[in-house]
Amino acid sequence: MRAGLAPRVLQMAGRTRCVAIAPHMYTHAYVKPRQLHISRPRLSESRPDDQKSTTAVEKFKPAEPAETAKPTKPLTIRERISNAWSTVKYLFRFYMNGVKQIWRNREIVKKIQEDVKLTGRSLTWEETQLFRTHSSDMRKLPLFLLILVTIEELLPLMVIYTPFLLPSTCILPSQRTSIMKHFEVKRKAAVVELRRHVDEDHDFDVPVIERTDEPDLAGATLAQVAPERVRELAVVYNQSLWGGTALQRRRIARHLAMLRDDDSLLASSEVMRSPEPDVALLEQACTERGIRAVNTEPQKMRDLLGQWLLYTSGRPLTTLSLAFLPVRLSSPVDMVSIQLEREIAEQNRKGIVEQTSTIVKEVVEEEKRIESK
To answer: Which domain of life is it from (predicted)?
Structure first.
């Protein structure tokens, strides 16, 4: 630094900075002062000590209380009555629409019968399924109507405990899926028990006995099966367990005789040939034959039905061999069934009130959706 120049010193934030050097007033009066350009300190920058202290303060800073939800205003008696009446109205409308659909199906069945009588053609497999379903719905209709007009509140409980008493037109697709899942868990458990006890030396290639469509003669072959296994076969084929072993044998024999006639129509049906088959019909065909129809792709169901037809059409089976055919077609290790068991166990943990409320809610939402169209 030249003699006679006195720097001006500025104290800023505890630091010494030189901002300018001016000439001495006596020795360098005519020298132009020089300016030193310095950057200003950034206000956002802080020293490490300051950051540590800030972090420590924030660490021990008490948390602010969360905002509590405002309590909902309780419904008045009039509002509760209005909501209950609206729910009952939607339930009644849904089940009445199901009853009306039964009568519409009746008209369709009559038209098909008239066409078959005039043309002399045979019924298709799809038409026989419609006839069979409609006949079952008509048998269930009297009791269903009695409950509907007297104690309508029992109908959601029937979906849980007695779904076999409900007409097919009075069950939502979601409810049908839930019913089929419960059935599949029971069916798989019965198949596992049958697999444990079935005789491995049993010949599945024995020709069909004569007149196997007669229940008594067909039941004679099923007489070789122990009563415990008869009950498991009834579960596999979704037959009623009411009555003793003799009645269960007759139901199974009658069902197997129906399947023999049904297989010939199924082999040439549209559901086995169409690139986009009716999934509901595929599920129905599999359920009737003791084949899994839940969480299964349509092509997989069609492949299993094709294997069934290879056994029943290509190589005739005795009634006893046909009865145990679902055991042969099922796989020993089934991850889908394990997953279904977990779903059913989770659903069973819910109380009856919660399950019933879910069913009622589904029905009401479906009716509101139809109403908004």
So the answer is: Eukaryota
